[in-house]
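question for whoever is on the cluster today: can someone run the full assembly for these? two chains, 702 residues total. i dont have access anymore since they changed the login thing
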Amino acid sequence: MMSKAGYKNLSNLGEFGFIDRIAARVSGGPGVITGIGDDAAVTALTPGMQLLTSTDMLLEDVHFRRSWHDPYHLGRKSLAVSISDIAAMGGIPRWSLLSLAIPSDLPLDFLDEFIRGYLAMATEQGVALIGGDTCSSRSGLVISVTIMGEQLPDLILRRSGAAPGDDIWVTDTLGDAALGLKLLEGGLDSAQPPNIAQKPDCPLIGVEGLLSRLLDPTPRTVAGQALAGSGLVSAMIDISDGVLADYGHIARLSAVGGSINLEALPLSPAFCSAAAGFDSFPYQLALSGGEDYELCFTSPPRYRENIADLLKKCGVDGTPVGIVTSSPEVKVFLADGAEFAHKTEGFTHFA
Amino acid sequence: MMSKAGYKNLSNLGEFGFIDRIAARVSGGPGVITGIGDDAAVTALTPGMQLLTSTDMLLEDVHFRRSWHDPYHLGRKSLAVSISDIAAMGGIPRWSLLSLAIPSDLPLDFLDEFIRGYLAMATEQGVALIGGDTCSSRSGLVISVTIMGEQLPDLILRRSGAAPGDDIWVTDTLGDAALGLKLLEGGLDSAQPPNIAQKPDCPLIGVEGLLSRLLDPTPRTVAGQALAGSGLVSAMIDISDGVLADYGHIARLSAVGGSINLEALPLSPAFCSAAAGFDSFPYQLALSGGEDYELCFTSPPRYRENIADLLKKCGVDGTPVGIVTSSPEVKVFLADGAEFAHKTEGFTHFA
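^ ran it for u. tokens below:
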């Protein structure tokens, strides 16, 4: 566990410096009995609730690049992607552990900004940083985040539970982060300037929105909890590898299939605008791009209006994009009824 | 969280192969509601207990070397060092999350053996593997383990709580792992053959025992819980950076000091035998070597016999090695009353 001794390898930092810097900026939170500084953190769950746990590891030049991700937003995102897993279960995020393997050349300013971003996201989401580990890295920065949340047993939503005939829903818009990554990979300048709005209702908008979706995702915690509490939802997952792959997890664990209407996938104006500069069919990124961190869930069609109302109250749009089927396959259809031959099943970082 | 999609970068493995291999070998455990396979794991604490959480990150060529650590024992140790943190709180280890960043050249056999070792330690310690994450690494293997345990609030032991006059205890022997590492660093053959037994009661014994302490540590879970349950102990920590540094954490958090009797530090016959081949004073490694994963705790002297009995029942020796003082310093004394000028305060991996 995070102990001062763990920091002795960090040549840029005093042995006690970095952890003191963090601990001084961390406050407690609901259920935190003992935070940073002992062998293990001690927390108390709300009576009657069960514990939700998830962990994510982010590696430099695999999941992020220092040239693209400024440290503040990297800190925010490191926590946000884990919180997204708690949101996908309908859980209340509570506590987190942060481990860092730090290259000796990493400036202290970078770390300070990273922690500032991490703690800003933590505060926004009601999460307390209660411990972690740190060591020196001989290659790039390694970030490992564990998130813990809680929820009443009856309100926890799983990937299983979808039933044939249910609507398949997604929140907000898809593909923005994946397109943002494409633009970064190509060098922002090399992206052809948008010349056609793919849809008439898509105004031309710059790429800032796409980059923001990639670099600073928002976990859908409020919507996730509201959906879980509504009793209207049969299964839920967060979309990190593209809706096709992630709905595929719901389908497999629910022993169902699905029919996704390609052109129903919600696209942002920024996406439509920027995607027009690319040759390939823009829906491919909305279908199979990564890092949307939106929710995909299933719900009987009779609740369609209730779901739309509920999401509106949570400040996020929702779109039915298909139907759960009894066949074991997940298929994608065009508006004319033809099946869409999709290229890949999910997103590969820096492939 | 551990999702099949996470494995797609592993060129040696099918996208679904590795996680299926793990999931097929994992069984549930107390309080496991939903294990591997959803966005987050779901577990239920024993009513009335609080949650204990700790995390450790292990990097290739920083914390371990593939040439020294065979994969089976590396798997065991990866979990054991985290469990040691739960033991140090007097907790009952329950659930773990395992994240791996895997170099593309790592043989599948290595991973299988690693998992076999991890799960063997998990079974021995009553821990369930409930989730994790995996991705490809562009440099070495990265292992991140989060351990969760539980305990009744009144039985949780912290680093704070030591009072002047208390005995300072340690379990088993110290310095074995650090000396094992020294032998490995020097190349086993280059270690001078033991020619003098430092203590008359130290029989000459090979280095296997030392290497085993380094490569396959045993978390003191049973002793930790017994000590916590006894009500006789005022503070506890596990010794990962040497007793001097780790008792220093107890001292600081308890606002006390300490006086450690150097020659009281318990040494194994194997340690005495092998240390005789080195020039430097052997107690230095027992004082400030790393990776003992023994317990250091404090207890009023009137309980000395009870503590000894209790530890004997747990199958581990205990030794009083000093006294908690009211002065803020931690000092080390020789048998003749002279202060021992120790070189470093703790252990640095591969320094």
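summary bc i know u wont read the tokens: Chain A has ten helices and twelve strands. Chain A touches chain B through 75 residues (CB under 8 Å).
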